[in-house]
Structures are given as structure tokens and as C-alpha cells.
Amino acid sequence: MKYRILGRTGVEISPVGLGTDCFADPLPEKDCAKILNRAVEAGINLIDTGDSYAEGEGERIIGRTLKESGTRHSVLLETKCDHGQRHPGLTLDEFVPEMPANEHGPSRLNIIRACEQSLKRFQTDYIDIYLMHRQDLIVHIEETLGALTDLVRQGKIRYVGCSTHPAWAVMEAIMLSEFKGYVRYSLEQSPYNLLDRRIENELIPMVQSHGVGLLTWSPLAMGVLVGLYKKEDVYPKDSRAALRGGFYADRVTQKGIEVGDKFVKLAKDAGLTPAQLGVLWCKDQPGVTAPLLGPENMEHLEDLIPVMEMTLSDSLREACDNLVPPGSAVANFHNTAGWFKGQIL
Q1: Element (H or E) spanning 343, and its range?
Q2: Across the chain, where does the E strand assignment appear?
Q3: Which residues contact 170 (CB under 8 A, 6 or more apart)?
Q4: Strand 17-19 and strand 290-293: pairing?
Q5: Are 35 and 48 a contacting pair, CB within 8 Å?
Q6: d(Cα 295, Cα 22) in Å, to the nearest integer?
Q7: What domains sit in the chain, N to C, each tagged with a CATH number?
Q8: Which of 111, 178, 188, 200 has the fewest CB atoms below 10 angstroms from its CB?
Q9: CA–CA gap between residue 124 and residue 117 (Å, rounded)
């Protein structure tokens, strides 16, 4: 398997990473451990989670599993400092806290507190990659970069980055790091799939130009690209739209379902499963370092492991472009980003 380089860091990352948003919500720990161990065995060395996933239980499960298997130092452990209920994009006048004071957002106080708690849950003394989960317009970026720089110098984190940030915000952080000697964002983690290609307009050209790694989440569009949903307002009982509702359900659109049906046929005609083609398409798009898988059982994982060795053909790439043109979208996977005002009509 050929590993990929994360931005300009020199760090080698498997062509896909393991996303763990479903760990403990709803998967039981024994199933999570099996998925994690099999992923590592197959060569996947990036494990992504967040301190808000299952209220920290996802981190605990990962920590216990890696400790028991003795594979902690064989993987890149990535977690996030969550924005909590801050609702990024609001101005200071509009902001009304919905969590205890100072337990949300990328302030120095919360970043240091959140990092220390994640370290304890993981049962480790360092985190390989630490991300700011969403952009926050209340806390100045210098406050955030200063705290992250201190944590890197203390050896508690190795690399830093952000998730679901606009291109201009990533660029602002990079320039401040260059001017003032702060730790530099090494990567951005964005939503990206065939149904929502809007990061191709600004973010992808920016990361390519400035040597920033790009990890992408929801490559299967929450199951829409594998034919999971048949109607816009009817959700299978075990789907995220049914279990979590809210912005998850809002991502299921009639146009997206129609594209998903065509995508399923395209995959089968190519001799692939829809899930394989969905991840393959994302993995081989320009600028992408690695998409994150979100398998909810061993069968899903085993189906996707071979994609690491596959290459997207020009004919399949063109066929996908015909379904959803580059830079466009038929579903909104940026609907947790307060800064993003674009809507799907």
C-alpha cells in the first residue's frame, strides 16, 4: 500500500482513515474494538475522533482498545476540541451560551482544559493531530494559535489543524503563524462527497497551493450514495437521519436521492459496490490526502479496505462529473458551519 504525505509535514498517512463518530453512538464497545483492530491490521494508520463524540466515550473506547492491543504508537491519533453549542458564525452580541461557562470554543482556557481531558480518556501522553472542530468568530485566531503552540512545545500534541473551516480562515491562520511564529495548521478536515463538491471552488486550490493536508468526511454522503434512502422524508430506522435527526436529516434531499440511485447503477456497472466507488472517487480527487471511513460493522469495513489499492479511472471520473458537476452541490453537508451561507435550492 502506498502511503500519502500530510501536507508539507512528511507524515505518512494511509490513503483512507478510520472515522469513529459511530463509536458508542450507537455501536457497543466490543464491535468498536473489532473494527479498530481490523483497520489497523489492514494498514489504516489514521484514527479520527472528537471529544464530543458520545460525550467522550469514543475517545475512551479508542484508548482502551489501543492500550490492550499495544498499537498506540503504530497509529496517528486525531481528535478535536469541540465548539460545543457555541453555534459558530454568531457575533458576540448574538451569542447565548448553552454550556457551562468556558467549556466551549477555541479559547486558551478551553483548549488546554479539553486537551488534558482527551489525554486522560485516551490514556496517552500525546495526541498526534489536534483539530479545532469549527470556526469561531468570537475567539480571535491568535488566542487559539497561542494555546496550540504552547501545547505543541509541551509535547502534548504533535500537529494541529482545523475542521470545516472556510478557506480564508485557514489562510489567515497560516499567515499569522508565518508572521508571528505560531504553530502552523497542517491540515483541514472538510465534508466532501459527490453530492457536495463546493470545497473544489476555493478550499482545494488553497490547500494545494500552500501545502496543507486535506482529510474529508462523509464520503458516502451519509449513505445517500449507496441507496440507503428512498424518499426525502422517510428514513430507515438505523440511519443517522432517523437516529439523530436535525442537521443529519436535512442532508437528505430528493435531488441527492436521485443522484444516489444513478450512482448505485454506475458502481454496479463498473463491478464495484456503491460504497467502494464513493470512497474511491473521494480518495482520488485532486488535493485530497485521505477520506475518512465510517464503517458501522465489519462487513462495511471489509468492503472498503480494498479501495486503498484501487485507482479511479478517467471514464468513471467523467461519469461522476456528469451526475454532479465539479464545484456544485445537490445536498448541503456544510450545514453545521455557521459561516457557510450557501443553500441548496
Answers
A1: none
A2: 4-5, 12-13, 17-19, 46-48, 76-81, 127-132, 157-163, 185-191, 213-217, 290-293
A3: 162, 185, 188, 203, 206, 207, 212
A4: parallel
A5: no
A6: 8
A7: 4-323 (3.20.20.100)
A8: 178
A9: 11
